[in-house]
Queue: 2 jobs
Job 1
Amino acid sequence: MSCNGIATTPPHFELSQIIACHGCDLLLERLPVKPGEKLFCPRCGELLLAPKNNSVNRSLALALSGLVLFPFAILQSIMSLDTMGFENSGNILDGVLMTFRDGYWLVAAILALTTIVFPLIKLTLLFVITLNIKLDRNPDYLRLLMRGYVHFDEWGMLEVYMIGILVTIIKMHHMANIHYETGLFCFIGILAMTLGSTLVMDQEEFWYLIENGNHN
């Protein structure tokens, strides 16, 4: 059952109980909000808090699953094309190296960063952050890692690569026999893990736990 509430201006300042509105910068008291409930700014109506259920555990599970699938998605063949007896196959890393050898260095660099480096960094950061929160550890570098995760979250382009794969399948299915390989299913799994982690991660809760500790 959903329940909405209006935040109130704090009578005194305790930093752990203060939240700033993203819309108008009003400082407000951080009221307890349960998953399914929402907290709004009384001045501008901006949504302040909308907790997600079991965010830390679910994010940890998705990050770990993504890291397990990652090497298979990058190194295993995505698909093989059989045309008139000639069979060609390749993986994501092969695509990057082939683009580089063809002289498209900038394209190869962008492809490597957006499909390999950034997603791997994002999953690794999420795993380290959630594991530290889960174990109630608060090292000094955890805040830096969280800022890095928020930054890298904007640079993943696995969805674009997946669209490219789908376009290839649509264009080639009349011209060749297409065999879907392990790498494709692992890549779809990573895509699901990264999208799922974005949906289940409650950044407000993560920041609060990093700043104040997990006392559950």
Note: The beta strands are 4-6, 18-20, 27-29, 38-40, 47-49, 79-83, 86-90, 177-180.
Job 2
Amino acid sequence: MTTQWHEIYLGIENAKTMSDLADTASRAVSRIGFSNWLFEVKSTCSGNDSEFFSDRGQYESWIKYYKDADFLPGGSPVYAALRTKGLAEWSDGARFVLTQCSWIGADLPALFSVGREITPVRVEEKATNAPYIAWLAGAIHAKFIALSAPTPKTGDVCSLTDRERELLRWTALGKTAGEVASIVGLTTRTVYFHLKNAMLKMNATNTLQAVVKAMVLGLI
């Protein structure tokens, strides 16, 4: 990972509020180079009211408007769907299926909200940095869910082994089990075994939930 991407990762990791996360996303776009990206903003998952930004000034104005607005996700039906079936499939390349939407490209899901509406953002890479696009979406998504989650009860804290923490950290970066196995020198089956144990300890139904809970609890 280059210094540029490492700094972006630290910004995501250290975000304490949704505003912090929005700032990090905006900086990531600026540092990578706006000319390499195409943004599509949809105000609802129905696909109505779609807008493309090819000018940085327009996009930054949009960022500021959404960042300064009240963040009220609790009353949003889209948010409710995101927290159930949209919360979602941690699939190859850290791509996500949000509610009823299936978009080509990497999603920065539900990063900004105004009132009762969640606004998903689709980001398509036009030139370079392709290996990092899905990773960025996955990292921001995981942090968004962590910031959205209720404060955990003391009784929810559990002990993970160093190996389980390590594998969850790689998973949080959007790596598949096979990729993680290659990185840490284990078989894919062994990686699945450790992740399954982590899921059981975290009382999670899937790997993404285990990652989110571990992040919220400060275990990874």
Note: The CA atoms of residues 180 and 186 lie 8 Å apart.
